[in-house]
Amino acid sequence: MLTARKELFTSLNFLEWQDYCVSQGAKPYRGSQIFSWIYRKYAVSPQEMSDIAKDFREKLEADFDWQLPEIVQRQVSRDGTIKQLLKLSDGTLVECVLMHYDYGKSVCVSSQVGCNMGCSFCASGQLKKQRDLKSGEMMAQVLSFQRDLAMENQRISHIVVMGIGEPFDNYDEVLDFVKNANDDRGLGIGARHITISTCGIVPMIRRFANEPYQFNLAISLHAPTDALRDQIMPVNKAYPLSELMGVLDEYAALSNRRLTFEYILLKGFNDSPDCVRALAKLLRGRNAYVNLIPYNTVDNNGFQTVDYKSALQFYDAVSKAGVKCTLRQKHGEDIDAACGQLRAFVSGEMKA
């Protein structure tokens, strides 16, 4: 008979730790202490919590899983980007990435084991979803980096939920995770420094628009017409661009926030002058911003990246067409940078 797994220690938020302590006959402030030990001092064992009584530390040890995921593989790029392949308690594998920017250190977090969206250019999309991640499993990805950074008196300043999986296909757990990361009694990462990316699940965008939070929303666009988007993103057949842009207009009106779009440049597919014109037409009249991203090539899907000169020409053309945009610096080009690629190689689902 299988025994139920203990709840991961990163699963509880501030109030839930207080409630747990009260349920054990302790004062609520004990929960505050535990929360601080986890998210301010980065403890991964109750035995590190020196201001908590020994018998209560033993109770904590017995009631929760205090293991961060095992680092199966760790790749470090020449540019400092670090990709970790993590093994979760059930043996499944996910990736998380630490990127260094002028404005701080950003962690890209996975939200699912695999992904059902099936985007043809994406390594994650080739790996069918096995399950959703719990909020605590997402937080554990962040802490696996933060503990190392703390040794150098550094901290994570930004979180992007753009790793393996579609965040809005795991809406509740993702929202619990980002709210916990935002709590100023813990990690205290500002809401404007936390971004959730979606390929365009319209009902969930509408739900997100009505949430009372200031987290950023990024839309994985990658093609400016239905004809092109249908070819690479199955979600577009369920929610075509007219529906997507309609709900984004609702989001912009409710949040008074600028719309952010991710646009991966695929050589010979979405980088033509016609695409520039279509993109300008799609975004005309909207407070929108496009993040142009040179593609990290996945060997077995046929798509290729554009060279830097071509990417710069596309950027110039989009800018001249009146669309605000930036050309993102490539990160981790010399490692298995494409999302889901390292997991696929290690698990044998993709040939190196």
State the CATH architecture of the largest domain.
Alpha-Beta Barrel
Which band does the percent of strand residues land in?
15-25%
SSE order in H/E notation? EHHHEEEEEEEHEHEHEHHHEHEHEH
User: Biggest sheet, strands in spatial order?
Assistant: 3-4-5-6-9-10-11-12-13-14
Binned, the helix content reads: 25-40%
Q: DSSP helix count?
A: 12
Secondary-structure content class? alpha/beta
Mean pLDDT: 92
Largest sheet: 10 strands, mixed
CATH fold-type name of the largest domain: TIM Barrel
What Rg do the Cα atoms give?
21 Å
Shape: elongated
Q: What's the domain count?
A: 2
Topology summary:
Layout: E1 7-8, H1 14-23, H2 28-39, H3 54-63, E2 64-65, E3 70-76, E4 82-87, E5 93-101, E6 104-108, E7 112-113, E8 131-132, H4 135-150, E9 158-161, H5 171-182, E10 194-198, H6 202-209, E11 216-220, H7 226-232, H8 235-238, H9 241-255, E12 259-265, H10 273-283, E13 288-294, H11 308-320, E14 324-327, H12 341-347
Parallel strand pairs: 1-2, 6-9, 9-10, 10-11, 11-12, 12-13, 13-14
Antiparallel strand pairs: 3-4, 4-5, 5-6, 7-8
Helix pairs in contact: 1-2, 4-5, 6-9
